[in-house]
Amino acid sequence: MSQSPTLKSPFLQEAQARGMIFQCTDLEGLDARMQEGPITAYIGFDPTADSLHVGSALPIMLLRLLQKHGHRPIALVGGGTAKIGDPSFRDEARSLMTADTITRNLKGIEGSLRQFLDFSNEQCRLVNNADWLDKLSYIDLLQDVGVQFSVSRMLSFESVKQRLEREQGLTFLEFNYSILQSYDFRELYRRHGAVLQMGGSDQWGNIVSGIELGRRTDSARLFGLTTPLITTASGAKMGKSASGARWLSAEKLPIFDYWQFWRNTEDADVGRFLKLFTDLPVDECERLGALEGAAINDAKKILATEATAICHGRAAAEDAAEAARKVFEQGATQAALPEKELPASLFHEGLPAFKLFAEAGLAKSGGEARRLIRGGGARLNDVVIQDENQIVTQEDAHEGKIKLSSGRKKHLLVTLNS
Length: 418
Hints:
L-tyrosine binds at residues 42, 177, 181. Belongs to the class-I aminoacyl-tRNA synthetase family. TyrS type 1 subfamily. Its main location: cytoplasm. Its EC number is 6.1.1.1. This protein has three domains: 10-227, 3-Layer(aba) Sandwich (Rossmann fold), CATH 3.40.50; 254-329, Tyrosyl-Transfer RNA Synthetase (Orthogonal Bundle); 331-418, Roll (Structural Genomics Hypothetical 15.5 Kd Protein In mrcA-pckA Intergenic Region, Chain A). The chain is 45% helix and 14% strand. It has 19 helices and 13 strands. The protein has helices at 10-17, 27-36, 57-68, 99-116, 130-133, 138-144, 151-155, 158-164, 172-175, 177-192, 204-218, 255-263, 270-277, 282-289, 295-312, 314-329, 331-336, 353-360, 366-374; strands at residues 23-24, 40-45, 72-77, 125-128, 194-200, 223-227, 339-343, 351-352, 378-380, 383-384, 391-392, 401-406, 410-417. The chain is globular, with a radius of gyration of 24 Å.
């Protein structure tokens, strides 16, 4: 599974240069197949919430890159597999969702996918596996597919072994997930000619099972490719923070906050994240990532604007950048605002908004701060705070400062003092 330095297909060359490839079942074989002409490839997204989050951005960017190079991407939404839930590397079983919840979540993640991908023609498809899984007879599935699976081999998958070692165990319902995902691969091969399944590194075992099923039943030559698990330079999992998931939906996360999330990227991650999450040329990403001192902040703003433009559109991204400039960078505005220094350590695990307002002196007590927020009079970086327990972290700071507002006339810059 070593990555060859002599790749010839433009998609794999660029994916490798951007750091998007972790494992591939047969990299040289896939490279040769892609040189023969466009291929069809897919990634699956189960509707576990009504929006995807930043943790899903890399797989979507891989589909986006595939489309850029003239191949045929399929975004597969799991209306069928959502009724089971993927157990891969989870501590416990997912709660089963109602049909109404699945329908609502499907609508939300389809919206997230449409922000990144162009489905205007059949070169890029949005497909729901409920179209075939909901029609399956269990006996027929066992006879056709179940006979092809070795239980001992399934038990050897790392994701399964980890669950079996935990107190929660693994239900038989969840154990079927790998079989259904494999069935998806074969079905997409038969319906649309898909020869490549891509996904996160946690999907390796399921992808390999699908390849084996296609080989056994259809003599198909299929491929699998996974992306690396993305963590920040400090070791945090991408897209997760004390204040919750960084959603791709503007209804769940304001566009300004999405822009700010990327703006607060650690210095050491800028070049890497530019390559993974923007369309900028690789050499430009490397140049920006190599900047030092104050100049790296300009690179962070470019990262924030480019990543936000892909997700929410260029106009919205530029509006967010301008809003940040007005809030944090206009000298006259900052000069007119009082400042309050607070230890940065307060924000390491996150600080509830009502406590922050009390600590900053914009409320005399926690109770007064709660009442202010409930009345809609509190703003964080010019965005109204909806929840008094909203967690505020260092990610909400710009140049080490957080703007707080109480009503229309009382404003304060909180400076994080390390």
